[in-house]
Every structure is written in C-alpha cells, then in structure tokens.
Amino acid sequence: IKGRNQCFVVLCIPHIHAVWACVRSCPANCVCTQERSCSVLCDRAGLLQIPSNFPCEASSINLDKNSIKFVSERAFGTLPSLKSLSLQHNNISFITPGAFKGLPRLTELKMAHNEYIRYLHTRTFTALKRLVRLDLADCNLFNIPDRIFIELPALQELFCFQNNFRRIPGAIRGMENLTHVYLERNKIEAVAYNSLQGLTRLKYLNLQDNRINVIHDHAFQDCQKMEYLYLNDNLLNDLPENSFDGLRHLKMLSLGGNFLRNVSKTWFRDLVELEVLYLDRNRVNYIEEGAFENLTSLVSLHLNSNNLTTLPFSVFRPVYFLGRLYLFRNPWECDCRLKWLKEWMENYRLVRDILCVSPSSVAGIDLADVLFDRSPEGYCLDPVEFNVTFYSPTPTEEPHSTTESKFSSLISKLLLQEGLPEEVANTTEALTNTTLLDRLGDEVSSGVGEYAISCSFHLLALITAQAVMVLQSK
C-alpha cells in the first residue's frame, strides 16, 4: 500500500501542477479548461489584438469571432505543446512573416473567413514543419506565392475555397503529401497540364462552382490515387479523350451542371472502381456506344436534367449496372427503342420518373405505364402520334355562324322576290347580320334549339320588313 501511495503521489503531482498552471496563466477575457490537456477559449471575447501571454502548456487556442486585425511576428511567443490554433471570423488584414514561429508542434491552423486578407507573404507559414491542416477559406485571396508552402512538408489538407483565384495555385505543385484540396467557389478558368503536377497522394480534389472551361490533356496524370473529383457547376462543353486516364482508384466523379452535349466512350475507360458518376444538369443528347461499358463497379449514375430523347440498349448495358439510375427531366420519346428500359424498370425497380414527351398519345405518361402493342409478326409497335388540327380564326377573321348564314341567304331570296335590286339586297343582308349579332347575342349563332331558331326567324322577318319599308320610302 505504501508503494502504491508513493506511486500515486508521483503520478498525480505533475497533473495537478499542469491544471493549476493552465488556469493560472489564462489570458484575461478567456476561459482555460483541462478537458483536453490545456485548451484556451478566447472566442467571442471582443478582443482587438492577440493576448500577449498564453499558458505554456496550451495545446489548443480558439480566437474565433473577435476583431483582431494584425498578427505580428512571433505573436504567440513559444508554445511547445500547441497543436491547434484557430483565428476564424476576425478582421485580419496582414500577417507578418514569421508570425507563427515558436509553435513547433502545430498541426492545425484555421484562418478562414477573414475577408480582408488579400495577400500572403512567402514566409507567412515558415517553421510550421508539422502542419497537417491549413484553412484559408473565404479570405478574399487573389493569389498566393508559389513557394509559400515550401516549409510545410507535412501538409495534407488545404482549404482555399471561396476566394478569388483565377488559376489553381502553383504553390501546391510538388506537395507530395497533400491528400485533400478544396478550391470550390473560386474563379478558376482552367486545369492546366501542370496544375496538379507531383500530387501523387492526392485523394480528394474539389473544383466545383468555378469558371473552368478547359481541361488540358493529361491534367490528372500524376493523381493516380485520386478517389473523389468534383468538377460540377463549371463551363465545360467538352473534355479531352484521355481526361481521366490512369484514375483507376476514382470512386466518385461529378461533372454535373456543365454544358456537355456528348459523352465519349473514351472518358471513363480507366475508371474500373468508379461507384458514383454525375452527368446531370448538362445538355447531353448523345451518348457514344460503349461509354459506360468499363464501369463495372458503378452503383449510381445520374443522367437527369439533360436533353436525352432515347437511351439505346447498346449504349447502356444494365448487365453491368448494380445500383440506381436517375433519368428524370429529359424529353423522352417513348417508342420501341425504350421498351427494354421499361422492362428493366419492372424487373429491377432501380429507376423511376421517366415522363414521356412524345409520341403525343403517351405525352405526360410515365414510361412504366406505357403499353407497347405487337404486330401480327411479333414486332413492337410504337405508340401512335395523334395528328389533331384545330381551326383558329385570324385576328381579322370573324367566326361565322351556320344558322346566321342560312338566315342571311333567306333574306336575300325574299328581298329578290320583292323585286329589289341585287345590290340593295346585299346591303340589307349586311345590315341584318350586324343587327342579329347585337340584338340576338349568342342564342341564334350557337343554334340552341328549334324553338330559338323559330323565334329568331320571326324576329328576322319583322326586321326585314322594316328594312324594306325604309328602303321603299327612299
């Protein structure tokens, strides 16, 4: 027991000392906690500058959501145990070269959401040899020096999304330990042949929501360990034949939201481990035969929101397809060319919502509900196309009434029988037509029944007699 007590005392004294030291040295307006070694929480503290003294034992410091504007050289002194530092959501506009010296064990640095950072010096991150994760998202950066990461050999994850880059930063070339790069929501216009040079361990690359309109040949040739590639919501209208050659470990490829019209059989020929492919929200109207034949691991294919009218069996071979197929929002022509798809839908139930646009007899009907007839010889018959035409009067043409025309003809005959000149009869006919429309309304012109026609005839005779009297008096 005595030995255990001595051991207990020996083991606990350093721990008690560390807790006491962490709290004793805590900066004003901050909270220090020993939950995870020594954590210093200074977020939302109204700070205008970085505190001058931090506990020497600090392993993490949080300075988020303050009003810090400037990070001076060796701003944090020497903190040999610090692993995580966060300066997000401040007003930082300048970082002095060497600002993070004295932090030899720092593995994570978060500087995101500092909208006034427009420039970084080449030696901004000097001495951070163990830094693994760097976050510079939403910092209004237009570029960064090509050699800024030269002293960050351990860097694996780089977050630079929502900045103003017009090209992929040259600083990442040759960063052989990089595994994740986030460059979405910038203004990048191209993926050049050397943009990703030397990124031999890259697994995740996000370039979505940029302005990329061209990808050079062999642009991804060094990224043969890539697993996730996002190129959606750009301005691509075509791709090189060998765009993704060598990416045999790619599991997810997103090309949605571009301007692609055709899908080449060469694009995906090496993607034998691809599981999810997005081609949605393009303008695809043609898929080359064999385009998907090597995608033997595919579990989800998104072709929705394109201009596809048909999907020939020879192009898409469902024998290889093991998951879901998304085809909605396309102008489908539900003829015999899609009969195989209807049968496949019924057997596997892995696709739905294929609304037909034509032929007219099945327009608006889901392909699953279309019935295909057979000829006496057993061949599939396309649904019929209705040829329905409607009479539509021109703006200057009045719709005419058959009943009214008969009455007008009768008036003319009666007037001619009375011995009136033909031109007077024509004038009276015109007068009678307008009078009928005004005084009888739709009752006569629409032919509502024998009684209405009889009454209208007597009224018409009275009007005619009055007209004759007027003309004779003249």
TrEMBL record:
InterPro entries: Cys-rich_flank_reg_C, Leu-rich_rpt, Leu-rich_rpt_typical-subtyp, LRR_dom_sf, LRR_TM_domain-containing. GO terms for biological process: visual perception. The keyword Magnesium does not apply. One of its GO terms (cellular component) is dendrite. Residues 1-21 form the signal peptide. Keywords: Leucine-rich repeat, Repeat, Signal. PROSITE patterns: LRR (PS51450). Pfam families: LRR_8. Residues 330-376 form the LRRCT domain. This is Nyctalopin.
